[in-house]
Amino acid sequence: MTIRWAVLGAGKIASKWATDLPLAGNASLQAVWARDPAKADEFAKHHGALRTASSVADLLGCGDVDAVYVATPHMLHAEGARACIEAGIPVLVEKPFALSRPETESIVELARSRKSLCMEALWTRFLPSFAKALEIVEEGRIGPVRHIVADFGFLAGRDPSSRLWDPALGGGSLLDIGIYPLFLARAFLGNPDRVEASMILSNSGVDSSCSIELSWHDGGTATLFSTFDDDTPCIAVLEGESGMIVFERMFHTPTTLVVNTVDGSERIAPPPGGNGYEHEIRHFGECIEQHLVESPLWSLADTLDLALLLDKAKEAASPA
């Protein structure tokens, strides 16, 4: 089965995603819509979409779309997801799924009530490097994970109109890139029992940097950091009782793992591929083929938990 995809949005992430679409093996690009028609036309020409839609309703209403990828600015993710669910079309929603836990809950409730397939596009969950790290931990090769360190930062120009800095567009380092360290910590240690955070706020009011400390009753801890003020190493380290796993730069992408145990050190390189989006595309297509309403790898419950963590970090943060 070839899944006919449509894309809401024509920005940088949408373009990287569409570049990987042919690599999924079960997908084709049917249509695109963007707020700027010229960008949509350029996107369609570059990536080979069969048509450019004049509106979201036009995108969803022609009967030639099997799935939609929502890659609009953050504040439009929930709106795009709702439109797809109401149209009865499976939808893959770029992270963050929505701007808050309550907004996330409203979309999840709608998807579940309509029994419509809906998944957050947290692509790192589907990468071979991430799957391999999960396997190593589950095998007990590094012992129980006790501490996680992860950072993600890059130097962003202070353009107040950019989505990174505009609060109306869901700006701030936490929502844009801090979500990845949070996701990683939760993936290997579960939902934390305590969340502490601090932020440095920009002139626009969104955070330019966010530091988060998580702790668990069983003694697990995590130290996480995101920033638009510096190019950081962008690595992640899982420290176990008898070894460690290092996700090399950039930890949230297809990357090399370094596994250190009492038996020595091992480097595990990612398999050849594209940007890495082909794995979530393939998985979502398989969910459609199997008539699933939620992903078994990244469920709506996972999305709700991550949304709550983001909200707790924002609530716990005090300006540094």
Give the biggest beta sheet.
9 strands, mixed
- Structural domain count: 2
Report the total helices. Answer: 9
- In the CATH scheme, the class of the largest domain would be Alpha Beta
N- and C-termini, Cα separation: 52 Å
Poorly predicted ranges (pLDDT <50, ≥5 residues)? none
Order of helices and strands: EHEHEHEHEHEHEHEEEEEEEHHE
- What spatial form do the alpha-carbon principal axes imply? globular
CATH topology descriptor of the largest domain: Rossmann fold
Strand content: 25-35%
Q: Helicity level, as a percent range?
A: 25-40%
What report would you give on this structure?
The protein has 320 residues and is an alpha/beta fold. The chain folds into two domains: 3-123 and 277-297, Rossmann fold; 128-269, Dihydrodipicolinate Reductase, domain 2 (2-Layer Sandwich), CATH 3.30.360.10. It is built from nine helices and 15 strands. The chain has helices at residues 12-20, 37-47, 56-61, 77-86, 101-114, 128-138, 173-189, 278-289, 300-316, and strands at 3-8, 27-33, 51-52, 67-70, 91-94, 118-121, 145-153, 194-201, 207-215, 221-227, 236-240, 243-247, 257-261, 264-268, 318-319. The strands form two sheets. A nine-stranded mixed sheet has the order 14-13-12-11-7-10-9-8-15, covered by helices on one side. It has a six-stranded parallel sheet with strand order 3-2-1-4-5-6, with helices on both faces. Strand 5 (91-94), helix 5 (101-114) and strand 6 form a beta-alpha-beta unit. Helix 5 (101-114) packs antiparallel against helix 9 (300-316). The mean pLDDT is 97.
